[in-house]
Predict the 3D structure of the following.
Amino acid sequence: MTTQRQRKIGLTALLLLGLGFLAALVASNTLLRGLRIDLTENDLYTISPGTRQVLQSIEEPINLYYFFSDRETADIPFLRTYATRVREMLEEFVAQAGGRLVLQIIDPLPFSEDEDRATQFGLEPVSLGTLGESIFFGLAGTNSVGGEQTIGFFQPDKEAFLEYDLAKLVYSLSSPDKPVVGLLSGVSMTAGFNPQIQQMTEPWVITTQARQLFEIRTLTPGFAAVEDDIDILWIVHPQNLDAATLYAIDQFILGGGRALVFVDPLAEIDMVNADPTGMAMGSASNLEQLFDAWGVTFSSTNVVGDNRYALSISGGFGARPVRHLGLVGLDAASIDPEDVVTSGLGSINLGTAGHFGVADDAAIELVPLLVSSTEAAELPTSQFQFLADPQTLLDGFMPSGEQYVFAARVIGPLTTAFPDGPPGPAESDDAASGPSGPQLTSSDSANVIVIGDVDILSDRLWVQTQSFLGQQIVTPFANNGDFIINALDNLSGSAALIGIRARASFSRPFTTVDELRRQADAQFRQTEQQLQAELSETEQRLGELQEARTDQGSLLMSTEQQEEIQRFLGEQVRIRSELRAVRRELDSSIEGLGTALRVINIGLMPLLLTVVALAVVFVRRRTIGASS
């Protein structure tokens, strides 16, 4: 009887435990739905404060229409997984908005009214070819004044930018009045006609992205005053500006205006001012008159070369990649993590950039945003204009040991570059100076960001365009665009989106492997130079032997020449063996590092967890034994 009773009690307990488990599961699904704990190092899955600020600043309701072809993608699991991620993010937005966001999730079946509605919003179906019918996977939003914003297609490759894309759409609908940016550019950043290639040109990606958040107004050089409704001056590659235009810029900034300035010792993207022979490309730009008045120094004749951050470029025709000292790929160590413009950015590429400094008697302060490593030095621009082999830049390169400032904020009081008043005829003074006369000093601290590179804006340094499911998709591989848009946002006073863009990247570079490769490359180059020196020495020795011969007309080699060639061939085999040994040592070092990491991840961590679990069981048993 006792045994049967114990069995009944045991079965009853198991039944109760099962029912309790089911109840807890139902309760957790109901009460804890949407609750998440983000354990990632950089809080990659947590809604940022900038997003919350955007959502809480919505004054009138915004309608969101999420179109996803659910039935048509039943056999495409990777797309459905990402669609769930998008839906959950949208639901989180709705929860944070306090009722000011209204979300509708729509499955636009073929030939349905929902499909027509998606088309009316401008969403185009994407064909999946043999995988099925065309599908919709996009978002449309409307506000109370008839404004519309859309995301045509959610690309899975851009999951890292999902929160920003959604917040940008909501922000654009909640703030229909965009800040006005006056673009004064010496290079063609907008759509136009290129007379050199006789073709129409597409706008730069950075210009297209900026137009989504700002009203970009193109300014023509020669203006005598900045229009009153312009909030920011975006000055790119200023060349040969007349005195009236410089004075207008001067007065705009001293009067409290904001400016984002790009100058360059050698802007390779400037094809208009390329050498007619096609050998030398690019040109220099500077705002020397204004910089001198402010106390900012910038050299238009020197490029900063950086041996640590030099990017590798293709050698062509199967040749191994070569490192280019003038093409610099900065990582987080050279990007200011404290400034809202650069916080969280992990990769910015520059091309033949210059650097800034502060004059000895200047009252301003230069706050660096982007800096070089200590393995950098100045090189004359002439070395880059006719550069055939980037490897030659490494010959005799000696780092200075100091860090150079590529981009910075200018903070402090500014002084006019026109202490005698506006230039030109006296009758134009009123138009240029304003009702209270010329401004001789800034009314407040400067609100200017200066960047010593124009190529940072060009598409080639930060984005690639590829075809994805029949559409042209722009995919960034560096944070150049984030940096520029952040700067414009910050200068416009709209800082809500800054925290969204300033998020850590999923990319985790193998810094130890990169260091091993740099060391091997230096050793490889040293051995390669030794081989070249041996070759030159042998050629010189053969020439001397030929000159010393008495039978100058003979085509046969002398015994000494043959021995010299055999000696060199032996040395060549030895040095080539050393080159291969350097490569093998690099590969073995990288493989050894990978093996150690695999041992730690696969073996050591489970072993540690097992030891901890056994220790917990042992302690609990001892505690139970002691209590009994």
Remarks:
- Residues 609 and 615 are 10 Å apart (CA to CA).
